[in-house]
Design goal:
Keywords: Antiviral defense. It comes from Saccharophagus degradans. One of its GO terms (molecular function) is RNA binding. This is Type I-E CRISPR-associated protein Cas5/CasD. It holds the Pfam family Cas_Cas5d. The chain is built from 4 helices and 12 strands; from the N terminus they run ββααβββββαβαββββ. It has 211 residues and is of the alpha+beta class. The strands form 2 sheets. Strands 1, 2, 3, 4, 7, 8, 9, 10, 11 and 12 form a 10-stranded mixed sheet that branches. It has a two-stranded antiparallel ribbon with strand order 5-6. It has a single domain, classed as Alpha-Beta Plaits (2-Layer Sandwich).
Amino acid sequence: MTTLILKTQGMAAYGVQTFDVARKINTFPTRSAIVGLLSAALGYSRKEHSHIASLSAAIKIAVQVNAQGQKITDYHTVQNFRSPTGKIQTTTKQTYREYLCDTEYSFAIQGNTEFISQLAKAVKSPKFTVFQGRKSCPLTRPLFECIVDTDNPVDAIILTGGKGQIFSDIEGPGAISTIQVRDVITATPRKYATRIVYVCAPKEVHHELTH
């Protein structure tokens, strides 16, 4: 299938769902964050949730962590924040937000040829500002890397030459374990489903790269 390869570098904060004062980050970019990144490039607003959900359902994703980065924590005080029960609190609260510096990620986005071509065009000239998880984490390089044609997004991402672990929607070459992650966008805004993520160790594959 046609697969879009993207790359990012720099500060990132791909968080997990939480209403706690400690805003933790995931060890690899979450599926919902990647879909959000693509949605921004396409020009989908948060109010257009049906479009975002359709985008999520139309693609398979794999991500490779080539540089984990250094974790830092940013201290804030906030007001009018949402509590774990969903209520807005007017008191002042301390929060701690985690970030990763000097990360390097590769992404494989797989889908039908026409839609992947549309995504490639969007990431080359995004309609909204694209960032890595939080607005304070802007891109430091162009997103677009290349387009490849492989049976599996894991094979596609290995073509980029990275050596880090790969986290994939579907089982691929070199699968060594599975984990469960609650990061799948559903039809209901801000409600997420759990998926099985296949952890793969990269192996060499041979295909043509299309730039």
